[in-house]
Amino acid sequence: MSGTASRRSARSAAAYRCSECGWQAVKWVGRCGECQAWGSVTEVGAATARTTAASAVDRPAIPIGEVDVRRAVARPTGVPEFDRVLGGGIVPGAVVLVAGEPGIGKSTLLLDVAARAARSGDHGDRKVLYVSGEESSAQVRTRAERIEAMARSLYLASETDLATVLGQIDALKPELVIVDSVQTISSAEVEGSAGNVSQVREVAASLIQVAKARGIAVLLVGHVTKDGSIAGPRVLEHLVDVVVQFDGDRHSRLRLVRAVKNRFGPTDEVGCFDLSDVGIVGLTDPSALFLSGRTAAVAGTCVTVTLEGRRPLVTEVQALVTASTLSTPRRATSGLDTARVNMILAVLDKRAAAPIGGSDAYLSTVGGVRLTEPAADLAITLALAGAITDRPLPHGTIAFGEVGLAGEIRPVTGAHRRLAEAARLGFTRAVVPPGVAGAGPVPPGLHIVESATVSEAVGRGLYDGVTR
Questions:
Q1: Is 380 marked as a binding-site residue?
Q2: What's the CA gap between 106 and 179, in Å, rounded?
Q3: Can you tell me the distance from the alpha carbon of 4 to that of 403, in angstroms, rounded to the nearest whole number?
Q4: What is the 3-state secondary structure (H, E, C) of the chain?
Q5: 103, 97 Cβ separation under 8 angstroms
Q6: What sign for the dihedral angle of Cα 45, 46, 52, 53?
Q7: With bands split at pLDDT 50, 70 and 90, how would you rate the model's confidence at 375?
Q8: Distance CA 402, CA 166 (A)
Q9: pLDDT value at position 123?
Q10: Residue 426: which region, alpha, beta or left (left: phi > 0; alpha: psi -120 to 50)?
Q11: By the 8 A CB rule, do 343 and 301 touch?
Q12: Burial of 106 by CB count in 10 Å (0-12 exposed, 13-18 middle, 19+ buried)?
């Protein structure tokens, strides 16, 4: 056999395929050569062409104008911050995947959602089924009593078998089902332990089929991997209707819920929650968590307005600069991007002649919030400048803007939304990039200090307070 024929025969005899992207290989490998996923290549035999015969139609197609749109109307869960993220509530038949790190508060939030949804029926008897594959029913009830999530029509089941879960749904006929978590449920029809790729796909597909066929809303809890991605096959995110990410620092009370994918609403809304010993509470005005509450101005602090989706949040940045006793000065951050802070320190040193080279610099945010957008650059700059000069910003000052390597201050999106939030909270002075004042109406009582460069922002922000 010629070499070309041998290679063609080897390609046609491919017996391994990636369950994530479909990439094929002649021999087993630990990592997919196409999508780079680990452990997704399994033996499936040579690919063969298959055809499916037509079957009888149970529900014939109807004109689009005759489709009942009432079935796609969102129903509130009773938790306004969660409804905000979902687009008004949960649509009957929708499948929502709630992902987050272990211990972040997913189970507490969904148990509260389950209880409030159960009480929201016409007679307070909307049936909700909470399936726990990680805890016993007694453990779930203990948490429900602690967070005041008891409801007469809330039913608990501690199951890990998919067939039993489907049987519970058949017997109860609930309007809402919560499965905590999808990685703990397994099917006897599929090989492998609970949580592997095949099991997660089978469990999700079965629950999605039941949800669509019977109009039952389903909330699936999903764990995340070390890199923050949702555990299990990526196809799971494509199958569900909504993917909700649950974020937060384990050492902070603040929890943020945002929609990564939403077929029924926007994906730029963020829900804020306060997690405490007595449960989880939605925050309609979370800015108070991010401010220190001082009445006197302190050097090395600056307040900025960040946008989480479409929601403006006022956050305080604190900086401390002190003489270093080390050969290499220390740089430490909490809640800020260290690489971004180092860049701003270099810009201050080069463009504003700030004496920062031989000093240690420590920066942090208040309340455990993490600032990632470039709009916080100017606030970091002014906080560092105030710490270096030991001069506080005037009381009631906020700042936002992106800092470039040339020392220029660049405009950011949503400037007037940020200004409106600052004015609502009583701030009277805003240090902003040039052009903001002329781009739209400025809230009454808020003075705008436009600065084109870092040196100008430091001079006008800390010293003269010229407004225009």
A1: no
A2: 11
A3: 58
A4: CCHHHHHHHHHHCCCEEECCCCCEECCCCCECCCCCCECCEEECCCCCCCCCCCCCCCCCCCCHHHCCHHHHCCECCCCHHHHHHHCCCECCCCEEEEEECCCCCHHHHHHHHHHHHHHCCCCCCCCEEEEECCCCHHHHHHHHHHCCCCCCCEEEECCCEHHHHHHHHHHHCCCEEEEECHHHCECCCCCCCCCCHHHHHHHHHHHHHHHHHHCCEEEEEEEECCCCCECCCCHHHHHCCEEEEEECCCCCCEEEEEEEEECCCCCCCEEEEEEECCEEEECCCHHHHHCCCCCCCCCCEEEEEEEECCEEEEEEEEEEEEECCCCCCCEEEECECHHHHHHHHHHHHHHCCCCCCCEEEEEEEHHHCCECCHHHHHHHHHHHHHHHHCCCCCCCEEECCEECCCCEEECCCCHHHHHHHHHHCCCCEEEECCCCHHHCCCCCCCEEEECCEHHHHHHHHHHHCCCC
A5: no
A6: negative
A7: very high
A8: 53
A9: 57
A10: left
A11: no
A12: buried
Rg (CA), the chain: 27
Report the half-sphere exposure of 348 (CA within 13 A, side-chain side): 27
Q: Which residues pair with 73 in a beta bridge?
A: none
Q: At what angle do helices 197-214 and 162-172 cross, to 10 degrees?
A: 10
Cα dihedral 259, 262, 264, 265 sign: positive
pLDDT, tens digit, 9 for 90 and up, residues 299-348: 999 999 999 878 898 999 999 999 998 888 999 999 999 999 999 999 99
Asked if residue 145 belongs to a known ligand binding site, the reply is no
104 is in an annotated binding site: yes
Which residue, among 275, 247, 273, 272, has the nearest Cα to 101 in the 3D structure?
A: 247
Residue range 115-129, pLDDT digits in tens:
999 998 665 678 999
Residue 203, token pair as written in the block:
């469990």
Distance CA(194)–CA(144), nearest Å, equals: 26
Q: How far is CA 437 from CA 15, 408, 419, in A?
A: 65, 18, 10
At position 207, the amino acid (one-letter code) is L
**d(C-alpha 420, C-alpha 219), whole Å:** 36
What pLDDT digit, counting tens, does each position of 19-37 carry? 777 788 888 888 888 888 8
Are the CB atoms for 87 and 262 separated by under 8 Å? yes
396 closest CA partner among 431, 429, 444, 445: 429
Strands 311-323 and 301-308 come out as antiparallel
Q: Is residue 103 annotated as involved in ligand binding?
A: yes
Query: For 255-272, what is the mean pLDDT?
Result: 88
- What does the pLDDT look like over 386-423, one tens digit per residue? 999 999 999 899 999 999 999 999 999 999 999 999 99
What pLDDT does 270 receive?
87
Extract the tokens encoding 376: 């916080």
